[in-house]
Amino acid sequence: MSGYWDPSIERMPFDELRSLQEDRLKSIVRYVYDHSNFYRQRFKEAGVGPDDIKQMDDLTKLPFTRKVDLRNTYPTGMFSLPVSRVVRYHVSSGTTGKPTVVGYTKDDIETWSESLARALTSIGLGRSDVIQVSYGYGLFTGGLGLHYGAEKIGATVLPTGVGNTERQIELMQDLGTTAIACTPSYFMHMVEVAEKMGVRIRNDTKLKAGIFGAEPWSLETRKRIEDATGINAYDIYGTSEISGPLFTECPQKNGIHIWADMFLTEVIDPKTGEQVGDGETGELVFTTLNKFALPLIRYRIGDLSVLDSEPCECGRTHPRIMRILGRTDDMLIIRGINVFPSQVESVLMKIPEVGDHYQIVVGREGPLDVMTVRVEVTEKGFSDKIGDLMSLKKKVAKELKSVLNISAGVELVEPGTIPRSMGKAQRVIDNRKV
Amino acid sequence: MSEIKQISLFVENKPGRMAKVSKTLSDAGVNIRAMTIAEAGDFGVIRMVVDNPEKGYKVLHDNGFTVSTTDVLAVEMKDTPGGLYEIVDTLGSNKINVDYAYAFVTAKAQRAMLILRVDDIVKAKQALTAKGVKIATKEEIQKI
User: Fold this and answer.
1) Which of A377, A386, A390 sits opposite B66 (nearest CB)?
2) Which of A246, A356, A417, B106 would you call most buried, defined as having the most Cβ atoms within 10 angstroms of its Cβ?
């Protein structure tokens, strides 16, 4: 039922799309070689030049780039244009190391907004919608990114930003917000606060859609949010390096469409760097095809996913990436076994007796890694018999073991004691690091 | 009806939690008649009988505690040797199981009060009443 923002591009036959990508790949490679000292040097080291890129398959001749390259060239050493052409900076929070700076030309901002205009239209939003942007505004790309995308489709933006949750809920009611964009953990906090205020999202607001991202979240969390509030919850993806939030699921909710005229997507084995096939898990690698202040060639983004290039039932020909499993950075290695916080989340959200918020604490007992999962006991799940609570603990531990293949301790805690986040949730406390 | 509404709370086993519970009730003017804590390692369950269970439940719930109410029996027990035996023997011979119990002594009456959670509250009441055991009403608990 929902339409297309630009049907000629969104439904472009696969072959045409591929040849458009090929043309744009060739010209962006030449562009960065001509404009960026960083790329010229990097290409020379790899013994490759613009003339070597004649067709799509030549892509693999090009060297990868990584976050560490942005850090090493801090602040703007990887840029292809001088600051006089740059109309905006965004800066990453630097939680995992030195912050990274990204920049945009006027056209880059336009392309970013265009990408979101397609995405927001695909989930049925338009001129008559009020979109509450509860992502952080400022150096973080979430707030301004969604803001521009929402304005582009003619929707009314309510730029609440993060925090002051009670006021956000009042405004949501007073101004008739129909869609909200924020982190899924902040939305769950918002629902909690609304309930305390006597406001039920389902009956007392006009909210029909949520655009949730900036942290990995599971299908089980989607179900929990949708069941609790009656809204449609869509996954949104993007990182500051490739502009910010850019892509969402369509109403099929079966993967996130990556606009192929703007980005070339590869999935690689993180160990060997070899491309893996459709349907296989690997690290996402993006090449920006029409971004000019800070173009990225074969940028290893660090997120793990699966690519599906088959046409989607929604009619869009652009490939989809499946739900992000996590960042390679987020992966915990517990007693030699890989554990993603999103796997823990998918287990917990299926158990109604535990609350929406959780925390993973990793430590060491002697030579052994120990993982403890802290969950809040909901009133729904509370029995005043100790035996029932012990069984709940055992049940959570058993479910975790069956999915993760390792034993985890379970700690039952009082509601409200696990810290709520306004932005990206801090799910893991790793006490092993010195 | 003579069931008493007991308030149960989930609490983490750490300093200050009991203080928070009692402060919340005291600020609301709710008086605790009897109380017990069952602990299980890092968490525990506080169970209590208060003079105004509806209000007690509400203030605790509104203050973010995980709280529930449970129907229990408050049974008057002779404060002499054999007082407890008479009650539990009656329940046992009627195949009624006691999930848990705790007792307190009232100042006015020369009697002890036993709070019982049983698997069949209706049958327990009948059996005890038939034995001549007095079961306290909500009003009586309120007035103590």
Assistant:
1) A377
2) A246
B4-71 fold: VC0802-like (3.30.2130)
Q: What is the pTM of this model?
A: 0.84
State the nearest Cα–Cα gap between A383 and chain B, in angstroms.
8
Which residues lie below 8 Å from residue B95, measured CB to CB, with a gap of 6+?
Answer: none
Give A73-122 pLDDT, tens digit per residue: 999 999 999 999 999 999 987 766 788 999 999 999 999 999 999 999 99
Per-10-residue mean pLDDT, chain A, length 434: 87 97 98 97 97 96 96 95 97 79 98 98 97 95 97 98 95 98 94 94 98 91 96 96 97 97 96 95 96 98 94 96 84 86 91 93 89 92 88 95 92 91 84 73
- A78 contacts: CB under 8 Å, gap ≥ 6: A36, A38, A39, A65, A69, A70, A294
Q: Tokens at residue A57, please?
A: 């398959």
Which range marks the domain in which residue A410 is found? 332-430
Which of B14, B42, B47, B63 best tests the A interface by mutation, with the highest count of A CBs <10 A?
B42
Q: Which residues of B30-52 are buried (b: 16+ CB within 10 A; e: fewer)?
A: bebbbbbebeeebbbbbbbbbbb
Here the ipTM equals 0.83
Residue B12 has its nearest CB partner, among A385, A386, A414, at A414
Q: Is the domain of A50 the same as that of A17?
A: yes
Which of A196, A414, A417, A420 best probes binding to B when mutated, by most B CB atoms within 10 angstroms?
Answer: A414
What total of structural domains would you count in chain A? 2
